[in-house]
Recover the amino acids of this structure.
């Protein structure tokens, strides 16, 4: 059971209901972590706005999901590992790729650089090395791409924190944090 109230249409005020209905119409459902966000309509609007705009950027959906999987695993967020396993499959990632992403790597050489950079950003609170930036540029990432990687790291940290702090009920096929040996 969630430690923070999960807002439903039955418990929502007018503003919360409007936001939940908009999410429902766009996604066909409202993931539980967004129902947690709905406790603060301002926080939910901020998250949805940044998320929507960030997804318009140059990073492909597969790379965004690879980053999300690596960070969810690193930050021990079972909700996010479960959610992004589902989203990663929808984005075209194989079961094997998802497993590799959760270890902080990728079978795709260019994407591997983005995943490693994302993990380094978290591990070092943004204090990445010049060598890491050069490696990203040599892999073909522009400064705009690097800023987008940083943005997606921030978005994923927010969702990892919501998932862990609330202990939100997992509403995706559950994926254990422990990686298969």
């Amino acid at each position: 059971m969630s430690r923070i109230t999960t807002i439903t249409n039955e418990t929502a005020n007018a503003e919360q209901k409007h936001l939940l209905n908009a999410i429902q119409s766009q996604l066909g459902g409202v993931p539980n972590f967004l129902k947690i966000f709905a406790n603060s309509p301002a926080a939910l609007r901020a998250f949805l706005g940044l998320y929507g705009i960030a997804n318009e950027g140059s990073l492909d959906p597969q790379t965004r999901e690879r980053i999300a999987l690596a960070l969810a695993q690193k930050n021990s967020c079972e909700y996010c590992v479960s959610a992004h396993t589902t989203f990663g499959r929808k984005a075209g990632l194989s079961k094997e790729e998802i497993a590799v992403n959760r270890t902080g790597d990728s079978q795709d050489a260019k994407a591997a650089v983005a995943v490693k950079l994302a993990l380094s950003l978290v591990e070092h609170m943004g204090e990445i090395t010049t060598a890491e930036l050069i490696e990203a540029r040599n892999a073909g990432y522009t400064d705009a791409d690097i800023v987008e990687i940083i943005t997606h790291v921030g978005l994923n940290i927010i969702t990892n924190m919501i998932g862990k702090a609330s202990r939100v009920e997992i509403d995706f096929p559950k994926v254990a944090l422990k990686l298969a040996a």
Remarks:
- The chain has a mean pLDDT of 96.
- The radius of gyration is 16 Å.
- Residues 121 and 128 are 6 Å apart (CA to CA).
